Amino acid sequence: MNQPLIRMSGLSKTFRRDSVEIPVLRGINLEVRAGDFISLMGPSGSGKSTLLNIVAGIDRPSGGELRVLDTDLLSMSEDQLATWRNHHVGFVFQHFNLLPVLTAFGNVELPLLLTSLNRKERRDHVLTALKLVGLTDRAEHYPRQLSGGQEQRVAIARAIVTDPTFILADEPTGDLDAESAIEVMEVLQGLNRQFDKTILLVTHDPRAASYAKVRHYLDKGTLAAQG
Amino acid sequence: MKIPLRYNLGSLWARRTGSLMTVIGIGLTVSIFITMMALVGGLESTFVETGHDNQLVVIRQGSLNETNSYFGRDLFQVVRYLPGIARDAGGDPLAFGEIVVNINHQRFDGESSNLILRGTSEKALALRPEAVLVEGRMFRGGLREVVASRALSRRFVNLTTGSTVHFGRSDWLVTGLFDAGGTAYDSEVWADYGAVAQDWDRPIYASILLRVENAPAAAAITKRIADDQRINLQAIPQKKYFADQASTSLGIKLLGNFIAAIMGIGACFAAMNMMYGSVMSRSREIATLRAIGFRRRSILASFLLESVILGLLGGVLGALLALPMHGVSAATANFETFSEVLFHFRLTPGILLRGMVFAAAVGMLGGYLPARRAARIRLVEIIRD
Known about the structure:
Number of domains of chain A: 1
Order of helices and strands of chain B: HHEEHEEEEHEEEHEEHEHHHHEEHH
CATH topology of chain A: Rossmann fold
CATH superfamily of chain A: P-loop containing nucleotide triphosphate hydrolases
Helix content of chain B: 40-55%
Strand content of chain B: 15-25%
Largest sheet of chain A: 6 strands, mixed
Number of helices of chain A: 7
Largest sheet of chain B: 10 strands, mixed
CATH class of chain A: Alpha Beta
Order of helices and strands of chain A: EEEHEHEHHHEHEHEE
Oligomer: heterodimer
Number of strands of chain B: 14
CATH architecture of chain A: 3-Layer(aba) Sandwich
Radius of gyration of chain A: 17 Å
Structural class of chain B: alpha+beta
Distance between the termini of chain A: 21 Å
Shape of chain B: elongated
Structural class of chain A: alpha/beta
Number of helices of chain B: 12
Number of domains of chain B: 2
Largest interface: A-B, 28 and 27 residues
Strand order of the largest sheet of chain A: 5-6-7-3-8-9
Number of strands of chain A: 9
Shape of chain A: globular
C-alpha cells in the first residue's frame, strides 16, 4: 500500500462571526492515496469546500493534523503556499474561473508561466492538455465564445497542464446542465483511469459523485459515512 | 515569468469606457505639463542661446543688466583699447558702447507694453551675426532711423519697413527688419547710439559689447576691469549675461509646476478610482491567479503595470495634444529689463520624455494602492464566495 498523499487527523475548522463560534469541520480523519478518486458529498454548509480549501492551502484548519505530500502546510507562508500549489495542485472551480480576456490557450498556459518551460514547451503542454479534454479546436476561443461545459473543460485543462500531484474539484458540475455535467465528469474519470490522476471531488450531486471510486458523506462537519 | 501583459491589455480593453476616461484625464494633465515645460524651455532657450563665447558685456559694477547700468563716455575709451580685444579689418577694436531705453509702445491688440530700443553702432551687427537683415536696409548713423526685429513688427504697430514711428521726442523712420534667430535680440529695436543718446538726453553708455581675441584674453580683460577701482565696471561673458536673465522664467516654471502638480494629483485620483473599480470587479480573477500559484508580488506588479500603461497612454495623448504648440510664438514680461520678451514654445524630445515620465508616475502613484489591495486580497473569502 502506497503512502497517503493527504492525511487528515482530527482536523477541525471553526469560523468566528462576531462573538459566535461556528464549527464547520469536526475531527475529520481522511487519507487520500495516489490514484484515488474520492468524492465528498454533503448539503450546503456541510464543510465540503472548506475541507478542500484547507487541503489546497487556501484556508487553515483550527485544529488537528494535516499533512499533504508529507509537508506541513501550516508552517508555510502565503507565497510558499502559492508556489506549492503551482507544483502540486490542480484546482477546478464551480464557476470555472477562467480569465475572460484570455483565450482558452492563454488560460491553460497560465500555470506554466510559473515554470521554467520555454515558449514551445509551454505550447506543447497546453495543446496536450486541451487535447485531453477534447478542445484542441477551441484553443483560440475566448471563454464567452464557449459553452459552460466547454469552459469547465478548459478549466480542467488548466488544472492538469502542469501535471500536478492531485486535482481538487469544487462542485465542478454545479453550474452545468446535465449533459455538460456528464461530459465534465467523464473527462475527470478518464484522467483518473487513464493517467492515474488523484482527484478529490466535492459535490452535492449524487450523479457526479457516482463517478468517484470512493464516496464520503460530510454532514455538519463530520465525515459520516462511506459509500 | 509573470502574469502576461496581454491579460492587462485585455482587461483595459474590456473596461474601455473607464479606461478611455482615465486616459483622457491623464492626457489633459500631461498636455498642460508638456505645454508649460515647452513654454519655460522656449523662454529659457531665448536667453541661453543668445550671445557668443568670445564676447563680453561690460556694465557698471553692481548692475544686473543694461537697463540699470550707466557710466561716462570716457570709460568707454579706457575699455575699448584694452589689450586682448579683437580688431576688425580696418584695425579698429571690436568694441561698441551702447545704450538701451525702455519704450512703451502700442501693440496690434490695442494694449501697450515695453520694448527695448538699443542705441548702438551700425557696425555692431558684426558682433551679432545671429541677427540678419531680412528686409530694407540698416539705419544710418546720426539719423532718426531704426531697424526692428521682424517678430516685433508683427506684434507692435508702425514697425514695418518704411513706417514712421514716434519714439521719445522724435519720429523715426523704420528702414528695415532683422531676424535674430529666436534670440533675445528678437525683442529689440535698434538705432544709432548718438541719435538715441541725444533724443533721451542721456550722454552716457549702459554697456559695452566687445569681442576678445581668445579665452586667456577674456580672463585678463575681465580681471583688469574688475581690479580697476577707478572705472567701477564689470565684464560678464555675453552668454552668461543672457543666461542670467533666464531667471525671468523662474516664476512661470514654479507656476507651471504647481499647476501640473495639482492636476497630477487629480489625475492620480482618476487612475486610482479606475483601478480600484477594476480590482473590485476582478477579485475572482485575482483569487484564481493566486490559487494557480501566482505570488502576491506578481499580482502587485501586474496591476501596477496596468496602471502605468494607463498613464503612458495618457502621456501619448497629452503629447499629441501639446504638439501643435511647438513653435507658437508668445511674449511675456522680462522682469530683469521690464520689457516684453518674445519667445517660441519649444517642444523638445527631452520635454516629451519628461511628459511620459510624469504620465507614468501619475499611473504608478494612482495605481499603487489598488494594486496593493489586489495583492492582499483574502483568497479564501473570494474562493468561498
